[in-house]
Amino acid sequence: MAAVIPDPRRVGFVGAGRMAEAIAQGLIRAGKVEAQHMLASAPTDRNLCHFRLLPPKTRVLRVSPNLPCVVQEGAMVMARGLHAGNSEAKLLQNLLEACGQCEEVPEAYVDIHTALSGSGVAFVCTFSEALAEGAIKMGMPSSLAHRIAAQTLLGTAKMLQREGQHPAQLRTDVLTPAGTTIYGLHALEQGGLRAAAMSAVEAATYRAKELSKK
């Protein structure tokens, strides 16, 4: 008896912007989907509430990705629609995990994730740029400063993930009495870094909620 050859997996995107491109490249690089089996259509601003108006058996899940999906280091969340079951959720999660980390959450968290991780890429880049520019100000060559700043962020993120520590604990581990780090942290607190970062996520969340209503 001849073996049954399964149909190739096809993935379609509504719109073909940076996020769709990032996910598509992540899926292709991971070997989950072949490039010729990817489709893109005209963009739409519909959210999960609008998709619920589709026929009763339509299975919909809402996804919030971020740009690092392009290097398979994305941070994504997904929320089930009314008719999506465990099999659909597992299928989508399996696909998306080829692009990075993917967690299922209540839909109420999606706009927050857009601010934290979608917009957060730009926030982190701004901090990385500022770190490097501080070193440049003190005499380090620009290209070297930016490479070291990026690697510092990467190494710190890996430690937080692998060791499961709260950031405050890792920060405390770096401190020594009257050392360089506490002086630098004092300057950051004086500059309002913590409050500014929290306000940025708050502002971006409110904007995401506004956009999702259009």
From TrEMBL:
It comes from the Eukaryota. HAMAP family: P5C_reductase (MF_01925). It holds the Pfam family P5CR_dimer. It comes from Heterocephalus glaber. Pathway: Amino-acid biosynthesis; L-proline biosynthesis; L-proline from L-glutamate 5-semialdehyde: step 1/1. The keyword Lipid metabolism does not apply. Coiled coil: none annotated. GO terms for biological process: L-proline biosynthetic process. The keyword Transcription regulation does not apply. Oxidoreductase that catalyzes the last step in proline biosynthesis, which corresponds to the reduction of pyrroline-5-carboxylate (P5C) to L-proline using NAD(P)H. Proline is synthesized from either glutamate or ornithine; both are converted to P5C, and then to proline via pyrroline-5-carboxylate reductases (PYCRs). PYCR3 is exclusively linked to the biosynthesis of proline from ornithine. It catalyses: L-proline + NAD(+) = (S)-1-pyrroline-5-carboxylate + NADH + 2 H(+); L-proline + NADP(+) = (S)-1-pyrroline-5-carboxylate + NADPH + 2 H(+). This is Pyrroline-5-carboxylate reductase 3. Belongs to the pyrroline-5-carboxylate reductase family. It is an enzyme of class 1 (oxidoreductase).
